[in-house]
């Protein structure tokens, strides 16, 4: 007597139409048939399909595998029963999957601890298309030739070793579907993280035009966007697509700027695509593959397989199945004489014919697979075979648990639980403030780092300094060079007209020394622009202090000369012999030497150094020169101020002396500008934030230098170039005489 039990199916989930399509059609047909029946019977439908391999048992496990691939394109018409289409290529890997299932069942039957007293059997069917899948599954569900009452044939328990579509995780829609492989949801998100890890921020996306591809690539794109990766294009096709559709996708790949492609598809589609890319010589692509093709050995034999060199992706963990090697080596046509595929397999492997033939040598089935090396006997990659092995054991343990139930107890039970209600508190996900990264608790970034835009990572703070790359830096550098240019031009004018009265009357030696020091003043402003270093920080402040003291010393010397020269014109005065040219030079040198000593002590005791200022701005670092010793800086500046005030007082006292003897009133104006600039500099320097303090210092240097240059030398250049009649000895003496009287 036979007892009808639920069939357990193994579906290879990446068939052309997909596992989901097969299950939907199967359940729909069965529900319609049972609804129309007068009694809840399961009645066989259609023609029975003979299994490729079968073994009797108390409980039968059904398996559906794609022993052949490459079915000719065929569109099913809904007006008649689908025809059986011949398949072309061998799939040794699927054949090994089937034998792994058989091996696991034999191993369980020999183990008396799992399901003692019960033998498992199997029926294994071949398919290579959606029509074959449905026909095989219908045969498995139909079961025996005679109808049996009360059997659950609308929701046959199904276990897959290869169906990874996230859509199958819907327990409401597929309550009887199980699998021993993770969902594509996790693979897709891992692939997005892999792309981000390698810094590929601009990628293309391709997929199967079925549930496997569409669901997988959709999850990938969503996860990639969360990782900050941009998708240039997303296209889908299938192995039965028309040729012009394949060409359209190839053209998109050719014209795109992204060279990284995420291909979420099966080995059938990737073969078609790579073949066309190879024909059109499109190379230089980085492929990222889903587990459906990334480890498929058959891709090594296709045209253009070199295009896939360097492809990366994820797959399930490899495993070992002890004893499977001997089981595979014992395969023989005599085990299943009715199996057409086993006969074809044997003839293909040994290149012979089991039937007498004049074309090929004859074989009798006594050949041995021990010496054969192909994908069937290769046991280095048992990733998916191990999933089948685990699935069979899962079925066996489920049966064992069912049989070990106590017959005196009911499955119904009374229980109580706390009713789920509204939470007492609820929490909103609030973004962390700037400078902290989002987590369960906001984590503060290190002092030299700041949070990125998304707030999920700390990145180094931006370093800013006053550079030539910004507009203000360029303008100040330009004004500095303009000042140098004007100074050199005036120096040339004075040199050309060095023997004229107006040049000689105003102490030409001090004039040339003053012009030289002004040139250095303009140039020293350039040391304040650019990235601060240890040497540039010391140079900019010492050069500024020494050159300005040299400049003010020359002006002070010229002022003293004017006063001495006026007193020398008085009867009985010989003051000029005490302040002649040599004394004037020594005076300037001594004033400058004092500043040199101040700067030397400053550099020895506490020199300026580069400093990362993080006080003014939280999100960036200002790289500036720390004074080292504030006393040193203000001493240098104070000494310059002392000389400038002294010079201003003397020039003010000499402002009404004869015009042609002196330039005191011009020096007075220049010192007035100089003092005004540096008095306003002090509060501006103290209050300016960040790198603006450097711009303020450069501005003060340039304005005071231009004030000295134009106030002292511009009137003389005007007389030399535009009023030459005033640049004569007679005019000078006449004017001097009139001023004295």
Strand line-up in the sheet with most strands? 12-11-13-14-15
Termini separation: 152 Å
The pLDDT mean sits at 79
Helix content: 40-55%
For this structure, what is the CATH class of the largest domain? Mainly Alpha
| Low-pLDDT ranges | 1-40, 144-150, 422-427
Structural class of the secondary structure composition?
Answer: alpha/beta
* Large-scale geometry: rod-shaped
Radius of gyration: 48 Å
Number of strands: 24
CATH topology of the largest domain: Rhopdopsin 7-helix transmembrane proteins
User: Major β-sheet, in short?
Assistant: 5 strands, parallel
Looking at CATH, the homologous superfamily of the largest domain is Rhodopsin 7-helix transmembrane proteins
Number of helical segments with 4 or more residues: 19
CATH architecture of the largest domain: Up-down Bundle
Strand content: 5-15%
Domain count: the total is: 4
């Amino acid at each position: 007597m036979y007892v009808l039990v639920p069939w357990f199916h193994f579906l290879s989930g990446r068939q052309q139409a997909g596992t989901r399509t097969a299950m939907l059609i199967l359940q729909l047909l069965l529900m319609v048939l049972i609804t129309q029946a007068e009694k809840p019977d399961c009645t066989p439908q259609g023609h029975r399909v003979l299994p490729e391999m079968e073994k009797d048992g108390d409980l039968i496990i059904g398996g559906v595998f794609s022993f052949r691939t490459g079915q000719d394109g065929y569109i099913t018409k809904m007006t008649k029963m689908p025809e059986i289409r011949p398949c072309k290529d061998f799939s040794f890997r699927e054949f090994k999957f089937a034998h792994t299932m058989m091996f696991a069942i034999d191993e369980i039957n020999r183990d008396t601890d799992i399901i003692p007293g019960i033998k498992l059997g199997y029926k294994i069917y071949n398919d290579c298309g959606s029509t074959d899948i449905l026909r095989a599954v219908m045969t498995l569900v139909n079961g025996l030739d005679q109808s049996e009452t009360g059997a659950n044939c609308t929701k046959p328990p199904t276990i897959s070793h290869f169906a990874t579509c996230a859509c199958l995780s819907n327990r409401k829609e597929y309550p009887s579907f199980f699998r021993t492989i993770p969902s594509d949801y996790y693979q897709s998100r891992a692939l997005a993280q892999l792309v981000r890890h390698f810094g590929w921020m601009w990628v293309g996306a391709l997929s199967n035009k079925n549930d496997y591809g569409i669901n997988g690539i959709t999850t990938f794109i969503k996860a990639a966007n969360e990782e900050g990766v941009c998708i240039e294009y997303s296209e889908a096709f299938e192995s039965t697509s028309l040729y012009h559709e394949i060409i359209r996708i190839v053209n998109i790949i050719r014209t795109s700027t992204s060279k990284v492609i995420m291909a979420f598809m099966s080995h059938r589609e990737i073969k078609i695509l790579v073949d066309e890319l190879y024909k059109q010589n499109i190379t230089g692509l980085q492929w990222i593959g889903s587990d459906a093709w990334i480890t498929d050995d058959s891709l090594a034999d296709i045209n253009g397989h070199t295009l896939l060199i360097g492809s990366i992706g994820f797959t399930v963990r490899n495993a070992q199945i002890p004893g499977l090697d001997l089981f595979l080596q014992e395969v023989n046509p005599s085990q299943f004489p009715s199996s057409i595929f086993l006969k074809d397999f044997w003839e293909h492997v040994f290149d012979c014919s089991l039937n007498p033939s004049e074309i090929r040598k004859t074989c009798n089935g006594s050949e041995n697979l021990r010496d054969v090396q192909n994908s069937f006997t290769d046991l280095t990659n048992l990733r998916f075979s191990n999933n089948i092995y685990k699935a069979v054991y899962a079925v066996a343990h489920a049966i064992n648990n069912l049989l070990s139930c106590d017959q005196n107890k009911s499955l119904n039970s009374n229980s109580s639980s706390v009713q789920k209600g509204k939470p007492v508190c609820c929490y909103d996900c609030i973004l962390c403030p700037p400078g902290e990264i989002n987590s369960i608790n906001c984590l503060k970034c290190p002092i030299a780092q700041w949070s990125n835009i998304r707030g999920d990572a700390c990145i180094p703070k931006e370093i800013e300094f006053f550079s030539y790359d910004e507009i203000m830096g360029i303008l100040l550098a330009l004004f500095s060079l303009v000042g140098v240019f004007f100074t050199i031009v005036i120096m040339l004018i004075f040199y050309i007209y060095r023997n004229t009265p107006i040049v000689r009357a105003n102490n030409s030696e001090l004039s040339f020394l003053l012009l030289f020091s002004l040139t250095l003043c303009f140039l020293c402003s350039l040391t304040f622009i650019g990235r601060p270093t240890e040497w540039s920080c010391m140079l900019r402040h010492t050069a500024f202090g020494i050159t300005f003291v040299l400049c003010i010393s020359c002006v002070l010397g010229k002022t003293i000369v004017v006063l001495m020269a006026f007193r020398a014109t008085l009867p009985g005065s010989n003051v000029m012999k005490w302040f002649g040219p040599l004394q004037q030079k020594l005076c300037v040198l001594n004033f400058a030497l004092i500043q040199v000593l101040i700067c030397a002590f400053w550099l020895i005791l506490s020199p300026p150094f580069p400093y990362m200022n993080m006080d003014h701005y939280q999100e960036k670092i200002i790289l500036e020169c720390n004074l080292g010793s504030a006393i040193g800086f203000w001493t240098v500046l104070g000494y310059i101020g002392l000389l400038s005030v002294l010079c201003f007082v003397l020039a003010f006292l000499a402002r009404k002396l004869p015009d042609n003897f002196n330039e005191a009133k011009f020096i007075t104006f220049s010192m007035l500008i100089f003092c005004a600039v540096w008095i306003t500099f002090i509060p501006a320097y103290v209050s300016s934030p960040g790198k603006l303090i450097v711009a303020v210092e450069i501005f003060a240097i340039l304005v005071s230098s231009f004030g000295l240059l134009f106030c002292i030398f511009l009137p003389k250049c005007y007389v030399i170039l535009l009023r030459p009649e005033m640049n004569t000895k007679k005019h000078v003496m006449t004017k001097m005489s009139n001023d004295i009287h």
